[in-house]
Amino acid sequence: MLRDRTLFSVPGATDEEGDAMMLPNARAILARAALLFVALVCSASKGSAQAAALNWWADDSLRIAMLTRDGIKAVRANAIVWAPRDSMPEIWVAALADTLDRGVAKLREIMRGPYEWQRIGDGPVTFYLSPGRFVSHGTGYGAVFIPVSRVHERVAPFLHEASHELLAPQPPFYRDEFADSVQGRLAAEATPLWLFEGLPDYLAQTAAPAIGLHEGDVFEIGGLAKVDSACAARVQASPHGQAVIDVMGRGARLAALFTTERAQVAPVFYACGQSLTRHIVERIGVRAAVELIPATRRGTWERDLERAAGQSIEVLRQGWLERIGLEGRGGGRNQSLRSATSGSIDAARTAGATHASTAAASNVARMAANASGAMVATPDTIPRMICAT
Ligand SMILES: [Zn+2]
Q1: Could you give the strand order of the β-sheet that contains 125-130, starting from the edge strand earlier in sequence?
Q2: Distance from the CA of 14 to the center of ligand 1, in angstroms?
Q3: What pTM, to 2 d.p., does this model score?
Q4: Which of 226, 244, 359, 382 could bridge to 222 as Cys pair (CB 3.0-4.6 Å)?
Q5: Which of these, 167, 78, 183, 69, lies nearest to 126 by C-alpha position?
Q6: 73 phi, psi to nearest 5 deg
Q7: Ligand 1 center–CA 115 separation, angstroms
Q8: Alpha helices (runs of H) in 17-89, residue ranges in sequence order
Q9: What is the pLDDT of residues 142-186, one digit of tens each?
């Protein structure tokens, strides 16, 4: 049962629907969707890239309305599952709710929480399994949306998305929650995306096998046992390999993730982000690693990481590269990367000019992508659109 309704409320929004099930009303969801960055992972499997609208989240209110009207609901302490009535037998929904209940509980256990900054508190994660082809995504308010087709295809990233919800700190965290929009943008730009995505991957890949849950392997990495070799092989095979390595461990943006090249670069980026995250967790412990997420908005994550590890990030990076057999790939920071590499909002503010040119370039890329039907993110959507193929 949901205990903290305020998690799902929008200031000023009313609950006129009298939702006895304590679900967010559609208007609240729509408003929240418009306000929040959304952490997400693509549910599309390799080779099935779909054209998708940039405002994929705008349909969340409709998805909730449909499910509350024609859906099946199963409530557990750590998970609430909604599914279309005709999509699967009710007994499956109940069984899935049992599994996800254990999955979210396991995530919490692995995270060594609770943490006072957690937005979700000890409330459940709500899984909306919805019709249609769209990008699976979290919301930052305790709910995740996953295409029911991905559940049937066994590529649903249940625990990855749930991890994003468990890792969401109290606002302001997502870009649009900052009163100062410039500050919000700069804070978002300084986000270490490799960690922002790598930690949910690490948590999900640790929790899923522990409870026998099949977690969708979106990028066909093969789990923690294969993540190092997957990263190394993909870096060596990809023309984007060095660019991915250059942003690992840094608060820098990998431009190719937000252009039509995303489908090629994301499998490398996610494998390496998960690999480096595991390397760091093994050195500083999961609790210190989890604490790096709220530190990203304080601008202290780099300092906190170095303090916990007892060594500089560059030394950490080099140790990781040696571990995965890419010690010659350390490279350096070119000027453009250095300008965007900072956990500090103040430092990131100095990168405003760089952002302006990046935005212009991305707008061109977006137009090209729209013309070709591909999916692309612009700086305005970062990091809502963390993962998309
Ligand atoms: Zn994600």
Answers
A1: 71-75, 79-84, 125-130, 143-147, 137-138
A2: 30
A3: 0.75
A4: 226
A5: 78
A6: -125, 135
A7: 20
A8: 26-35, 60-70
A9: 999 999 999 999 999 999 999 999 999 999 998 888 888 888 778
